Amino acid sequence: MKPETNTLERSQTSRMPSWELPPANIREEHEAYLLELEMPGVSKNGIEVTVENNELTIVGHRQDEPPKGEVVYRESRHGDYRRSFEIDTSIDTGKISAKMEQGILKLTLPKAESVKPRKIQVVD
Length: 124
Fold this sequence. Notes:
Elements: E1 2-3, E2 19-20, E3 24-28, E4 32-38, E5 47-52, E6 55-60, E7 80-86, E8 97-101, E9 104-110
Parallel strand pairs: 2-7
Antiparallel strand pairs: 1-7, 3-4, 4-9, 5-6, 6-7, 8-9
């Protein structure tokens, strides 16, 4: 899997949405790849996961409430999240599953049966 290399940013005059690139962790296990994306402020209803032409795209829509009072200082951004990954044919895209827990989206990308190691029994 290859993560995308750039993020879509909105200029002051553009009407395109502003996307934030969420941090990602990818682990390989025996049966699957595990992908975790940090998306604070996103509920499971705000997640869109799609696979098209060997590209996995994840969009997380934030449910920010307007701040009460005057904002004096702010480091967090208001944009939604978007991340794309190129996936290869060793992943069984029909069996991808996703779960959202405490602002972390966890995707399981099962390996196709054809690429899993298997033991061959020797017969007499």
